[in-house]
Write a structure and sequence with these properties.
Layout: H1 2-12, H2 15-28, E1 44-46, E2 49-51, E3 55-57, H3 68-73, E4 78-84, E5 97-100, E6 105-108, H4 117-126, E7 133-138, H5 147-158, E8 164-168, H6 183-197, E9 204-208, H7 214-227, E10 231-234, E11 254-257, H8 261-275, E12 281-284, H9 290-298, E13 303-306, H10 308-313, H11 317-331, H12 337-340
Helix pairs in contact: 5-6, 6-7, 7-8, 9-11
Length: about 350
């Protein structure tokens, strides 16, 4: 109710200013230790981690690891901070974030703006022992001469603090980054990351783009299985443009929110088929309700994430989705979330 009252005023602000205000408000809120009990029917074990429920906050919201505990307190089963780069980075010129209200969507061309690995590591180290699953999404600096080395360096720094590491090679806002999804480049990158992580490190997830050709999907799936990754995150924002009503529809950058839902759902199905169900999938893109999340789970996602929907639905959305998932699970005759994965 409070969000409904505040939303008109928030929407008068520039989207990036509104986001910074949201982070500051959350940072001032008390945090609550998250439960990792496996006793709930919504709990699920993925990549050796026990998630209290399958709903997570996607990377991009908490870029600098400022509010992971507060996000867990909103009802998320896990949260993913970042993307974090080795050195601080201002990102692309402003304006670079656009609300497409008529489409319930967002376009961003942020460009991995963040305060760098050192400051994020300090904050994450300070929360050590609080519990809760916090993934760390890592990226490369825009001006890096060796992006593979960036990912390896970040892995060494962040692995001790991460529940899992998410290798982000699918942002459309860092020139040339998506080229790392090419078969040869991806193999070399993952070898470097896994070597830097070591045998006892956290699981490694790979975040892919929705704008992939069938041959790319098959190659990525084959490499991910061969390297023993913990999961694939499907998918990042899209550079495609379905019909949109907003005046900002022509802005460049990655499109997220409701218009991405069908593409992301289909890409999840494609990766489910390509992996033969042999690798956990994290479904993200256009999820705004329990029904959206349930459809992604039935299509093959062990976990789901959201971000853009929070812009329009507010901080009560995670708890509504979690409650809705439990209702839908009972309605369809499943005793646990794990039973429902891939039963579409």
């Amino acid at each position: 109710m409070l969000f409904d009252l505040a939303r008109p005023a928030l929407f008068l602000l520039d989207p990036e200013r509104a986001h910074r205000l949201t982070i500051r408000v959350l940072a001032a809120a008390p945090w609550r230790a998250a439960s990792v009990s496996g006793s709930s029917p919504l709990s699920i074990r993925v990549a050796g981690l026990d998630f209290p429920n399958p709903l997570g906050m996607a990377a991009g919201f908490d870029k600098d690891a400022e509010v992971p505990d507060q996000l867990l307190g909103l009802g998320f089963g896990f949260t993913e901070v970042g993307s974090i780069t080795p050195r601080p980075q201002a990102g692309n010129p402003k304006p670079r974030l656009f609300r497409l209200v008529e489409d319930r969507a967002v376009i961003n061309r942020m460009g991995f703006n963040n305060g760098g690995a050192a400051s994020a590591r300090e904050r994450l180290a300070a929360r050590a022992g609080r519990g809760g699953i916090v993934g760390i999404n890592i990226g490369a600096n825009k001006d890096s001469e060796d992006r593979t080395a960036d990912y390896a360096a970040l892995t060494r720094v962040m692995a001790p603090l991460a529940s899992y590491l998410a290798v982000n090679i699918s942002s459309p806002n860092t020139p040339g980054l998506r080229a790392l999804q090419d078969q040869g480049a991806l193999t070399g990158l993952l070898d470097a990351v896994l070597d830097a992580r070591g045998e006892a490190g956290p699981p490694v997830f790979l975040k892919v783009a929705p704008d992939l050709e069938p041959a790319d999907i098959d190659a990525i799936a084959r490499i991910a299985l061969d390297k023993g990754l913990g999961a694939l995150i499907v998918s990042n924002t899209t550079i495609s443009r379905p019909p949109l009503a907003s005046r900002d529809a022509g802005e460049t950058g990655g499109l997220s929110g409701a218009p991405l839902r069908d593409l992301a759902q289909q890409r999840l199905r494609d990766f489910r088929k390509a992996t033969g169900g042999g690798l956990p999938l994290v479904g993200v893109g256009g999820i705004a309700s329990a029904e959206d999340a349930w459809a992604r789970i039935r299509a093959g996602a062990s976990l789901v994430q959201l971000y853009s929907a929070m812009v329009y639905e507010g901080p009560g959305l995670p708890r509504r989705i979690v409650k809705g998932l439990e209702r839908l699970m009972v309605r369809d005759g499943f005793a646990s979330i794990a039973e429902a994965v891939g039963t579409e």
